[in-house]
């Protein structure tokens, strides 16, 4: 096979500007059949822009796109689909009001005519069975009724379904961000099988280990350019982090975690999950960072919401002594007010303090926003811009600013860092530890085991119950997995 | 490790089927709500005046239910695309005026005007999509246009419905009163078209997640045009059905339909955003409103002066009950 024709897709000198901002500055990128390309970089490094071009949803300002060896002048989404290129976007692109089967139909124009519902249902069910055995999803479930993890499973499975068009390349943008370790493993194993059948994948993930273990070749992007591209086995974690430009910050964590913690303060939260049968309960004191771990959807979020509710109205089994703020995990549906500016989104939790007489003082709101912009590093020219002018990571920072800028002494975090780049994560970790040092209490549910390193101790959940309480010194990934799967020790 | 894994997956399956059972129950309840409110209004009528529950009684009470149901379906199409039509009432009035004049005197011109007005609706959809205008503003403006046109066509109440239309609307099927048969037929046809066909999925998807639809290569311009054209079509049917019942027209005849149609969609289980609509629910909602509007109030001996206010009160009570019940499910 001649080398030039072998590429599934090749971009030469792709450039893209959004107004004055340069999102991509002359990128060369290609994918060969039968390889998994890992794409890493901070949020805003240009990964998403590049992938939108590969998928045909954006056209480059200049540069060439070639697919299967032929040059594409009018490249578009429908053209990309004809040529066998699909994308699973980071923001979920399912219609919540439709069933799983109906959502499958949306991606397949050929699923029409008599019996299309049966065909669509069979198609998606077979693919779900193949990728995620024991998925527990019916083709007739309405997507809006599914948990966010299941929705991601449907979205991924849908991208791999085939009707009349060919399928050569699937772009997976943060495919595991809402999956627990078990389902993420199933997905990555499937990706390897897919690659083995001479198809290709682009894997974008902020979980570097995932990229290192599963990609054949890794492309690192920074500031709209490709900085390194090399075989995956030429990389290790440190080289990746250095290439991405986050090395300095990483060193700091270890040092700060090692620093001694102050003695436990007064009790802030004592909560028992509704399903808990034995006497175990979750206890959090002032200045503590408490982790909530276990497989996704095993009652961690429910407990956080119960604690949140208990702060305003007494509930049996839950004791809360200070005001509470919640940082939502599904920021699009639970966190952000889409029509509002960044400053308004930050100020909403502190309206009582921002009041001047009966009205909100714009000056105080702006001051609060300015303070947190500096403190947490929200990258925007103007805090009065709409919240959607920010990249995903910066939106999440604004939600943190909302919680930390309030009077809340207890901050509940519902897996808030999913899909956020490592640079932002490290900044937020620092801030959380700093605030904990000042006496704030954090309850932190996370699906990423690495994040638990920041916690003082960790409660592992299974089926809505606490099954283990691990101190900092006994905290290992094996231990958490063991407790999440096994019966309580 | 192995047996533990199996236990975990068995566990997960058991949990998910229980979860799904609960969800299915919630969805069933949500689906039954419109029927429940209809049953409630019927029970009240039966209690106040048992004789009304008869073939003749229903034909009389549900007299205006068909045009209301058609207008509600028109509104439902617009709401499926996350828009709102504030002009449907005056549009029905305009169609009524055309039906009672041109359609009877010069059928060809009448048909052309009605088809043209559906075309105007389609263009409105295109305008709203292309210029990214709020539909409330555009249709509010259009409501005055339709009203003005209606007055131009028929300055004074009058005109006469075409004979064939009168014949259709006074059809008396055996056993089941005509309004009920017609409502059932309308509900089923639209249900099949919007909920079961493959393009119906695309239309509803455009309300659920327009960005996703666009990424999958569908034209949002087209879905919006189709939804508005369907609204226009059912608006025309509603106006014609109305004149077939009242036999003559008046430029203000449909004005109340804007609010009735919105309330009917919501009462029938629809939501303002997110593409969640139910054609059968909308028809049932329209029937409920048609019954609650006047027969129920007359049986309650409420003087005509107060009926409009009482009508509003019933609307608020019924819609509030719906919100309360659907909130409890969550």
Automatic annotation (TrEMBL), chain A:
SUPFAM superfamilies from the UniProt entry: P-loop containing nucleoside triphosphate hydrolases
GO molecular function terms listed in the Swiss-Prot or TrEMBL record: ATP binding; ATP hydrolysis activity
SMART domains: AAA (SM00382)
Matches recorded under Gene3D superfamilies: P-loop containing nucleotide triphosphate hydrolases
Record key words, sorted: ATP-binding, Nucleotide-binding, Repeat, Sugar transport, Transport
Classification via InterPro entries: AAA+_ATPase, ABC_carbohydrate_import_ATPase, ABC_transporter-like_ATP-bd, ABC_transporter-like_CS, P-loop_NTPase
Pfam families, A to Z: ABC_tran (PF00005)
Family, as annotated: Belongs to the ABC transporter superfamily.
PANTHER family for this protein: CARBOHYDRATE TRANSPORT ATP-BINDING PROTEIN MG119-RELATED, GALACTOFURANOSE TRANSPORTER ATP-BINDING PROTEIN YTFR
Name by which UniProt lists this protein: Sugar ABC transporter ATP-binding protein
UniProtKB/TrEMBL annotation, chain B:
Database matches in Pfam families: BPD_transp_2 (PF02653)
Presence of the UniProt keyword Cell membrane in the record: yes
Record membrane topology: Multi-pass membrane protein
Swiss-Prot/TrEMBL keywords: Cell membrane, Membrane, Transmembrane, Transmembrane helix
GO molecular function ontology, one term from the record: transmembrane transporter activity
Location in the cell: Cell membrane
Endpoints of the signal sequence: none
One GO CC term on file: plasma membrane
Full protein name: ABC transporter permease
Species this protein is from: Mesorhizobium jarvisii
């Amino acid at each position: 096979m001649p080398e030039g024709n072998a590429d599934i897709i090749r971009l030469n000198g792709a450039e893209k500007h959004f107004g004055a901002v340069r999102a991509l500055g002359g990128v060369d990128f290609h994918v060969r059949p039968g390889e998994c390309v890992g794409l890493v970089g901070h949020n805003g490094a240009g990964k998403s822009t590049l992938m939108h071009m590969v998928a045909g949803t954006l056209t480059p300002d200049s540069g060439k796109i070639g697919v299967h060896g032929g040059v594409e002048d009018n490249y578009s989404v429908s053209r990309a689909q004809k040529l066998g290129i699909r994308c699973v976007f980071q923001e979920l692109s399912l219609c919540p009001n439709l069933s799983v089967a109906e959502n499958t139909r949306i991606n397949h124009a050929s699923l029409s005519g008599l019996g299309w519902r049966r065909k669509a249902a069979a198609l998606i069910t077979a693919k779900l069975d193949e990728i995620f055995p024991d998925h527990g999803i019916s083709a007739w479930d309405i997507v809006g009724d599914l948990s966010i993890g299941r929705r991601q499973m449907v979205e991924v499975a849908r991208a791999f379904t085939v009707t009349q068009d060919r399928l050569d390349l699937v772009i997976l943008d943060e495919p595991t961000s809402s999956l627990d370790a078990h389902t993420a493993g199933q997905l990555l194993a499937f990706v390897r099988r897919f690659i083995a059948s001479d198809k290709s994948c682009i894997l974008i993930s902020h979980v570097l280990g995932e990229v290192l273990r599963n990609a054949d070749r890794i492309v690192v992007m920074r500031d709209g350019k490709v900085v390194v591209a090399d075989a995956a086995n030429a990389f290790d974690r440190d080289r990746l982090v250095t290439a991405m430009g986050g090395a300095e910050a990483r060193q700091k964590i270890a040092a700060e975690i090692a620093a001694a913690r102050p003695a436990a303060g007064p009790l802030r939260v004592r909560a028992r999950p509704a399903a808990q049968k034995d006497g175990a309960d979750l206890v959090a004191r002032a200045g503590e960072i408490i982790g909530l771990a276990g497989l996704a959807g095993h009652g961690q979020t429910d407990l956080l919401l119960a604690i949140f509710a208990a702060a305003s109205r007494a509930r049996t089994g839950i004791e809360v002594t200070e005001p509470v703020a919640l940082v939502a995990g599904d920021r699009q549906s639970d966190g952000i007010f889409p029509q509002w500016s960044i400053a308004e989104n930050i100020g909403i939790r502190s309206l009582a303090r921002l009041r001047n007489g009966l009205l909100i003082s714009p000056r105080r709101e702006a001051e609060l926003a300015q303070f947190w912009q500096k403190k947490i590093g929200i990258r925007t020219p103007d805090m009065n811009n709409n919240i959607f002018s920010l990249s995903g990571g910066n939106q999440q920072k604004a939600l943190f600013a909302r919680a930390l800028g309030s009077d809340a002494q207890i901050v509940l975090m519902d897996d808030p860092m999913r899909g956020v780049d490592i640079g932002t994560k490290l900044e937020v970790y620092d801030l959380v530890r700093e605030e904990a040092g000042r006496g704030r209490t954090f309850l932190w549910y996370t699906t990423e085991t690495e994040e638990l390193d920041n916690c003082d101790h960790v409660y592992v959940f299974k089926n809505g119950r606490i099954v283990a309480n691990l101190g900092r010194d006994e905290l290992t990934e094996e231990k958490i997995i063991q407790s999440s799967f096994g019966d309580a020790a | 490790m192995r047996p533990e894994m199996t236990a975990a997956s068995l566990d997960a399956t058991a949990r998910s089927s229980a979860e799904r059972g609960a969800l299915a129950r919630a969805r069933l309840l949500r689906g039954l709500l419109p029927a429940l409110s209809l049953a409630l209004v019927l029970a009240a009528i039966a209690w106040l005046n048992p004789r009304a529950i008869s073939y003749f009684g229903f034909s009389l009470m549900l007299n205006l239910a068909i045009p209301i149901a058609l207008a509600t379906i028109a509104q439902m199409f617009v709401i499926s695309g996350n828009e709102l039509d504030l002009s449907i009432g005056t549009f029905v009035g305009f169609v009524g005026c055309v039906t009672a004049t041109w359609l009877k005197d010069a059928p060809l011109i009448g048909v052309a005007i009605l088809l043209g007005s559906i075309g105007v609706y389609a263009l409105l959809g295109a305008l709203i999509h292309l210029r990214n205008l709020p539909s409330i503003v555009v249709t509010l403006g259009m409501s005055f246009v339709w009203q003005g046109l209606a007055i131009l066509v028929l300055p004074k109440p009058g005109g006469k419905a075409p004979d064939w239309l009168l014949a259709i609307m006074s059809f008396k099927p055996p056993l089941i009163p005509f309004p009920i048969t017609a409502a059932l037929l309308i509900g089923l046809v639209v249900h099949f078209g919007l909920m079961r066909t493959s393009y119906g999925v695309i239309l509803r998807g455009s309300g659920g997640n327009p960005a996703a639809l666009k990424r999958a290569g569908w034209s949002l311009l087209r879905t919006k045009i189709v939804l508005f054209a369907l609204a226009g079509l059912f608006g025309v049917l509603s106006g014609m059905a109305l004149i077939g019942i009242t036999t003559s027209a008046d430029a203000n005849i449909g004005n109340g339909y804007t609010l009735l149609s919105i309330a009917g969609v919501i009462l029938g289980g629809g939501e303002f955003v997110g593409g969640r609509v139910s054609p059968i629910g909308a028809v049932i909602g329209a029937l409920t409103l048609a019954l609650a509007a006047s027969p129920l109030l007359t049986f309650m001996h409420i003087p005509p002066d107060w009926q409009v206010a009482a009508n509003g009160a019933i609307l608020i009570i019924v819609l509030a009950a719906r919100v309360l019940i659907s909130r409890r499910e969550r």
